[in-house]
Design brief:
Elements lengths: L10 H12 L21 H12 L21 H13 L10 H14 L7 E5 L2 H16 L3 E5 L4 H10 L2 E5 L19 E6 L19 E5 L24 E5 L11 E5 L2 H7 L1 E2 L8 E2 L9 H36 L3 E3 L7 E6 L5 H7 L6 E5 L2 E7 L7 H11 L2
Parallel strand pairs: 2-3, 2-4, 4-5, 5-6
Antiparallel strand pairs: 1-7, 6-7, 8-9, 10-11, 11-13, 12-13
Bound molecules: pyridoxal-5'-phosphate.
The site of pyridoxal-5'-phosphate (PLP) has 15 residues, from α5.
Length: about 400
Amino acid sequence: MTKDPSFLADRAGLEYALEALLKAVDTTRIPVLPGTLPQNGIGEHAVLSALAPIVLDRAQPLGEAQSFAHMDPPTPWITWATSLWNAALNQNLLHPDLSPAATEIEARVIDWLAPLYGMDGGHMVPGSTIANLTALWAAREVAGVTKVITSQAAHLSVAKAAHMLGLEFKALDTNHYGRINPSTLGDDLSKSALVLTAGTTSAGAIDDLGLCGRAAWTHVDAAWAGPLQLSPEYAPLLAGIENADSVSISAHKWFFQPKSSGLILFSDNKKAESVISFGGAYLSTANVGVLGSHGAIAVPLLATLLAWGQNGLAQRIERAMGLADDLWRRLEAHPGVELFGRQESGVILWRPKNAGDVDTVLADLPAGAASVTRLGGKRWLRHVAANPNADIEALWLPISRALE
Ligand SMILES: *Cc1c(COP(=O)(O)O)cnc(C)c1O
């Protein structure tokens, strides 16, 4: 039987793909995607030529000097190389016998990271939406909780998870800084899962993690700010997280991973896994958690951690935090600016005092410099320090012009 070349690591195809990534693509040709499924293919090389101008040119660059708008970082090239391995090898951790190296690598990444958060294990997931669902599922089974208590600033995935799991959902008011107000928690939390947020999506606020341990189960949604724990300078912001029962982190945020990559960590992983595992049928080992097939997303994360070490990763996050500090100070010093609050975890919210029109300012800023969020009944311009390669002068110039 002849081998199908589409499944071979065709050197010419790989080289073509890399070249297309690297070279400035000819945009004079504007290819149109067919409206219906083509009956006959045009071949791999023709596809790369046709798709490169669409996919590469019509993507918002995330590592540019003025990219400072969302929680999506640029990714290091070591993750591109290892993701190419992943695509070519297509390992499935659902069947550890078919993915011996990938299974070991995920276990190793968890062994490296979990203790930093006071957790003893966990597994990788496609992001914190799934991590939050997994955590609350375990909370319901292990601690018998019937209710989820969080703040109004919690990510919508917490409400979604409560809905799916049939748990009552209560979102408490936040205080002036966007944090959960401890006095509103109530006394009896014996049937509640308390979800605290480390880095709220809108404002980057970090709830008081000293509250960990107050409820039957405490989950910390550290999707955004979790990686600060690797920095000696910023780890104190997360003090108390070690007393949580579970922690979510989105690795495709401040661990600089390609999507979709995240972690769910448990303080007692054995107990948690025992209630969220299903076995039998064609499986040689139990299927843990929400997903079925499970890719080798730990490989690019391990490669990044090996390449940079904890210090290298921390330095990049610290550089991004330094940029946020700088921008925050410039905005604070500007008489025409109203700030939402301090910047805690690299998220800055501000609005023009007079112009009043957030959208006009936004339209004056380069694409990717700011996003818009609504909080406390007001609309705010939002910057997020996901990109350590941003240039503060390049960002500040259009902002100061827009405020003139
Ligand atoms: C981004 C985010 C999520 C959702 O994570 P995904 O990785 O996008 O699924 C949950 N909680 C917070 C606080 C977030 O910032």
